[in-house]
Amino acid sequence: MNLADLRVFCSAARQPTLGAAALELHLTPSAVSKALRRLEGDMGAPLFDRSGKQLLLNDSGRLLLARARALLALAEQARLDVMGERGAIACRIAGPALLLWRHADALAAALDAYPQASVHLQPAFEDAALAALARGDCGRCFRISTMKTTCWNGCRRCSWP
């Protein structure tokens, strides 16, 4: 069992299909499938019930998922400790790529005062970013706010500036 396979497993557990997990991880579906098969071999039991293209966690998979998340968190903390970043600010921000790009300069400027801070920007659609926030996979997320009007900037029919 290795951490890379556990990361793949956690992603596959979140996503409805192997292809969706592959997209999230920026891997090919065959690489995700191989990692899952390798992990199942290491565990000595299947972790998913496969139904067509869908992957559904079985009892063994649900048991491993809780442990895998804890192991990945411990591994990340160990990495930070060894690098001398104990107590450093570490934040994962999810959201649409355009918003992450748009606000990257402001985030970098805000972090200038904290040289040991690390920020990971995770591109995701709004619903996936909100779900990641709810699961605790990220600390913050960006989303596009709902506009109060359907008019464009400078419209004369409404009070839009």
UniProtKB/TrEMBL annotation:
Matches recorded under Pfam families: HTH_1 (PF00126)
Record keyword DNA-binding present: yes
PROSITE patterns named among the record's database cross-references: HTH_LYSR
Residues annotated as transmembrane: none
Keywords linked to the UniProt accession: DNA-binding, Transcription, Transcription regulation
Ranges where the HTH lysR-type domain occurs: 1-58
GO terms, molecular function: DNA-binding transcription factor activity; transcription cis-regulatory region binding
Top-level taxon of the source organism: Bacteria
SUPFAM superfamilies per the UniProt record, alphabetical: Winged helix' DNA-binding domain
Gene3D superfamilies xref list: Winged helix-like DNA-binding domain superfamily/Winged helix DNA-binding domain
Family indicated by similarity: Belongs to the LysR transcriptional regulatory family.
UniProt protein name: LysR family transcriptional regulator
Organism this protein belongs to: Janthinobacterium violaceinigrum
Lineage, top ranks: Bacteria, Pseudomonadati, Pseudomonadota, Betaproteobacteria, Burkholderiales
